[in-house]
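User: tokens in, sequence out, please.
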């Protein structure tokens, strides 16, 4: 049987994870809501086997992070990440002002 990871099946390039703590929180909250909905749908008879794989749980997501060698982009340093980290880099970004000069002729 084909095991699909949804959208991640088509991700062949770089996987960048922005604000990984928020991703974890949102994923866990969405999975809790999904579990409640699935209970209701199974009781109602609307959900059949296999249709519960439209999302991935956080454990599967961390496996995808490891497999795709995820790049964590976090604004605040943390003590731990959900996967092992190979390298930590510090960098600063600065927004550039809008250029309002006329275009040279």
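Assistant: Sequence out:
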């Amino acid at each position: 049987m084909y095991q699909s990871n949804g959208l991640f099946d088509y991700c062949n390039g770089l996987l960048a994870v922005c604000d990984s703590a928020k991703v974890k929180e949102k994923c866990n909250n969405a999975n809790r809501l999904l579990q409640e909905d699935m209970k209701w749908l199974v009781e109602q008879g609307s959900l059949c086997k296999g249709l519960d794989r439209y999302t991935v749980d956080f454990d599967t997501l961390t496996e995808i992070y490891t497999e795709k060698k995820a790049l964590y982009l976090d604004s605040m340093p943390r003590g731990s990440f959900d996967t092992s980290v190979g390298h930590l880099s510090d960098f600063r970004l600065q927004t550039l002002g809008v250029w309002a000069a006329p275009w040279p002729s």
